[in-house]
Structure formats: structure tokens, C-alpha cells
Design brief:
CATH architecture: 3-Layer(aba) Sandwich
CATH superfamily: NAD(P)-binding Rossmann-like Domain
Strand content: 15-25%
Shape: globular
Strand order of the largest sheet: 3-2-1-4-5-6-9
Length: 222
């Protein structure tokens, strides 16, 4: 199983990367990043790429892969809808279109989040943009495509968040996430489970295209 990961320097992406590197079914991991992950591993190849709005120059290098785990994400705070759409929808679809042209039978997994608006008509800007991204990814025609919508995420294996506010919350209030997980195990997931669920979605499939926190935890345990 040959895997492409984007967003590997972020919290979710790094968690997914670590699980892929450890999994015996994964033979090769290509990360497409703007800056190095700093990780060294026999399975790992890094492709430094500055312009995430255009992947056409990488077309030949992106052939022959079985799955893509697209974990890029950023806050919508302080951004206009046009800017957020460019950084979220445009960049994700630019990659997905190249990958579908080269690897139509691959599994494409995209990380959005709980609250994403599939109608594309809701009041929250970020949710509309994420909803359109999901809808258009599902319409591309990949053999398998799953839209992961995690909620509360506990980072494991030394993973940290590049979002200062979330890392502050993790540093001081992780106990709260653990409490919520104890009360309702299906409300919370973690970076290990997300990585394992991504891998299992390709190896074993899933009956839902929208993958919510309970589904993530279930997929991880297969």
C-alpha cells in the first residue's frame, strides 16, 4: 500500500504519518509539504512543494499510489470567505483532480470536521466551504472517498498542534477531553485512531462516505 499524505506537519497529519510508518501494510509514504517534517524513515519520501494551488508539475511523481490522506487544514478566523475557499477548497481540489486523473482507483480521504455543512447554505462560512469541498471530492469518482469529520482530538505519541489556541487547550485542558471520552467514548477520538482509521478505510472499506467520531473509533478498531 503506497500512501500520499498532505498536512503532515500539522497535528492530525503527523499523527496519520506516524501510524502509516508503523503499519506493516504500508510500504511507502510520500508527504507533500512546504517544509520538511523532520522525520527520517526508510518508508518515507518528502516532496517539498511551495504552490499548493497547482500540482500539474508533479503529475508524473504522483502516479502509482493507492491512497491519499489529505489532512491539510487551517482556521477560518480573520479570513474572508474568498480567501478561506482558496486555501481550503481550491488547494484540495487541485490535488484531488491530479490524483484522480493518475490514480482513479485510489482511496481519497479528506479531513474536515464536525459541523461541516453538506448543504453549502448554512450560516457558518467555514462549514459551507468545507461542505462544498466534501461534496465535490465525492463527485470526482474515486473508487473510495471518505470525508473524516473529527470533533475533539487528543494528540498522542508526542504530537502537538501548530494552532496555538488548540495547543494551549491541550496543554491545560486535556483532562477535560479525557473526561468527555470517559462519559461518552464516541464523542472524542485521538491522532492514533484517526491514523489507524485512515489506513483501515482503504484496506477494509467503510459503508459511510461521511466518517464521524464514532465511525473513526470503530474503523480504527477493525
Amino acid at each position: 500500500m503506497k500512501v500520499i499524505i498532505t498536512g503532515a506537519t500539522g497535528m492530525i497529519g503527523r499523527g496519520v504519518l506516524l501510524e502509516c510508518l508503523d503499519h506493516p501494510a504500508v510500504t511507502e509514504v510520500l508527504v507533500i509539504v512546504r517544509r520538511s517534517t523532520g522525520e527520517a524513515h526508510p518508508k518515507l519520501n518528502e516532496l517539498i512543494h511551495k504552490d499548493f494551488s497547482n500540482f500539474t508539475t508533479l503529475s508524473e511523481q504522483l502516479k502509482g499510489y493507492d491512497a491519499c490522506f489529505a489532512t491539510m487544514g487551517l482556521s477560518a478566523a480573520g479570513k474572508s470567505e474568498e480567501e478561506y475557499k482558496r486555501l481550503t477548497y481550491d488547494m484540495t481540489l487541485a490535488l484531488a483532480q491530479i490524483l484522480h486523473a493518475n490514480n482513479p482507483n485510489m482511496t481519497f480521504n479528506y479531513v474536515s470536521g464536525v459541523g461541516t455543512d453538506s448543504t453549502e447554505e448554512g450560516r457558518q462560512m467555514w462549514a459551507r466551504v468545507k461542505g462544498k469541498t466534501e461534496n465535490d471530492l465525492l463527485a470526482l469518482g474515486f473508487k473510495q472517498a471518505y470525508m473524516f469529520r473529527p470533533g475533539g482530538i487528543i494528540p498522542k505519541r508526542g504530537v502537538t498542534s501548530s494552532t496555538k489556541l488548540y495547543q494551549f487547550f491541550i496543554d491545560y485542558f486535556t483532562w477535560l477531553l479525557h473526561l468527555i471520552a470517559w462519559i461518552n467514548p464516541n464523542a472524542i477520538t485521538d491522532t492514533v485512531k484517526i491514523g489507524q482509521a485512515m489506513i483501515n478505510s482503504h484496506l477494509k472499506g467503510h459503508d459511510k462516505s461521511i466518517v464521524l467520531p464514532p465511525d473513526i473509533n470503530k474503523l480504527a478498531a477493525l
